[in-house]
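To whoever is on call:

I kicked off a structure prediction for a single chain this morning and the downstream step that reads the tokens threw a length-mismatch warning. I double-checked the sequence; it's 124 residues and nothing unusual in it as far as I can see. Pasting both halves so you can look.
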Amino acid sequence: MRLKLDENIPATLAAPLRALGHDVDTSIDEGLLGEKDEAVWTASQQSQRALITQDLDFSDARKFAPGSHHGIILVRLFAPSRQAIIDRVVQTLSLAAADEWSRCVVVISEKKVRIRLPSPPEST
């Protein structure tokens, strides 16, 4: 899976995700540190990457409807320490099904992974 780590996700998460076979870049590597959400979002979409973030601005299903983008993985942990984020995201993206989450909105919490799939096309 092609992924971009937002600046609110530890950049050290990139290495274990790469070890799982994911193609990962970070906002920091691209000089997007401190940039507005729109700049990070545009960079993520131009490079056809799902964005991994903790930013609730990306949870608006009206603005970021599944299927209208390359994917959003929203990390929502009760106690989001750096290590807790790394451990939970690696655990979740180790699942075989993760490769099918492109164009979806995925919400990762301590105990659940919720996946909002793109709507099926309407038949005529």
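Update from on-call: the warning came from a stale cache, not from the record. Cleared it. Sanity check on the structure: Helices lie at 14-19, 37-46, 82-93.
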